[in-house]
Backbone:
């Protein structure tokens, strides 16, 4: 190896080492266990909801792709529909302090009330531990976990990767598809899709 090649390889290694590590958990694997504090100061764990379907929704209120689903009422409708059927739905905020979308507990509770959000709880993840554990990269990004604790869906909320409110109507909602199929004892037709939206605003 030439000196230039060694320098190039060392530079690439340095760049790669600086990239945050993301979870290697994949659809079909056991979902990573977690403990997180919600916006009301309560500890929430995945184990607590064993026997239920669980949805994780990565959120950033400043992201236009997230706003699309809240301004249209789509996300709130999904939260209400599925929690009424016994699904535990967690909105997760992994924005770091000083970054777009960061929320204090008080601020998030006020915002949630204003937009009539209806998740089971909002998990505050300012250090990004939960986000990195699941490999969340965009807002929104969705994960569905079955009652046995297996990850059965990961990816986009739907098939319309735009910030336009008009695109909510008529979209194929992948979360609804996954939950409907799984609850009927059927395999999820699209267990993985490419998520879209804003990058998660981690501190690193």
Residues:
């Amino acid at each position: 190896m030439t000196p230039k090649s060694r320098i190039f390889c060392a530079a690439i290694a340095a760049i790669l080492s600086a990239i945050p590590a993301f979870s290697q958990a994949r659809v079909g694997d056991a979902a990573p266990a977690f403990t997180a504090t919600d916006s009301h100061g309560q500890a929430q764990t995945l184990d607590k909801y064993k026997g239920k379907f669980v949805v994780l929704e990565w959120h950033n209120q400043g992201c236009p792709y997230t706003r699309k689903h809240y301004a249209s009422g789509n996300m709130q409708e999904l939260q209400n529909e599925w929690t009424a059927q016994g699904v535990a739905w967690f909105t997760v905020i992994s924005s770091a302090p000083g970054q777009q979308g960061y929320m204090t507990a008080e601020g998030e509770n006020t915002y949630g009330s204003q937009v009539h959000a209806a998740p089971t709880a909002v998990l505050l993840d300012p250090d990004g531990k939960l986000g990195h554990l699941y490999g969340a990269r965009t807002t929104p990004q969705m994960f569905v976990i079955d009652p046995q604790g297996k990850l059965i869906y990961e990816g986009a909320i739907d098939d319309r990767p735009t910030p336009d409110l008009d695109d909510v109507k008529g979209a194929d909602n992948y979360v609804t598809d996954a939950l409907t199929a799984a609850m009927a004892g059927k395999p999820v037709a699209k267990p993985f899709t490419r998520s879209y939206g804003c990058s998660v605003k981690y501190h690193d």
User: Anything to note?
Assistant: The longest strand covers residues 88-93. Strands lie at 35-38, 43-45, 54-58, 88-93, 121-124, 138-139, 141-145, 151-155, 198-199. Confidence is low (pLDDT under 50) at residues 1-23. Residues 3-18 form the longest helix (16 residues).
